[in-house]
Amino acid sequence: MQEFYEGKATVFTPAGWNEQCNTLLAKLESPDVGVSVRALADSLGKRIAAEWAKDKRASKLDAINDLSKWDAEMKAAAEQDDGSGAKITETLTTIDREVTAMLGNK
């Protein structure tokens, strides 16, 4: 799981989850919003990491396509957010819904 959290971006894979989250948090102006976004990102990251760590034949997510898609969405949210955290929160919530639907759990 360390590779999921600390992974380095390549042509084929996104940055590690920690780097992605740090990019989002750097955009926020309010520490209170940062706490909320961090909690959402941490919860989401744990769920994705648990699935990512499974044997690839048993995993319900596509380690390359799904993670790359979410990476792009998170980067776009960081670029579009005005510092309030609204766009970032919206994007993380959308990804969370996708993960829930994909995994069939909460």
Keywords:
106 residues; mainly alpha; 67% helix; globular
Question: Care to describe what's here?
Answer:
By secondary structure, this protein is mainly alpha-helical. The protein has one domain. 67% of the residues lie in helices and 0% in strands. The protein contains five helices and no strands.
Quick description:
Helices cover 67% and strands 0% of the residues. The protein is mostly helical.
- Number of structural units classed as domains: 1
Major β-sheet annotation: none
User: Helical content, roughly?
Assistant: 55-70%
What's the rounded overall pLDDT mean?
Answer: 86
Number of strands: 0
Rg over alpha carbons: 13 Å
Overall geometry: globular
- Terminal Cα separation, in Å? 20 Å
List the secondary-structure elements in sequence, H or E. HHHHH
Low confidence ranges: none
Number of helical regions: 5
Estimated structural class: mainly alpha
Which percent range describes the beta-strand content?
under 5%
Set down the secondary structure blueprint.
Layout: H1 2-6, H2 17-26, H3 31-52, H4 65-80, H5 86-103
Helix pairs in contact: 2-3, 2-4, 3-5, 4-5
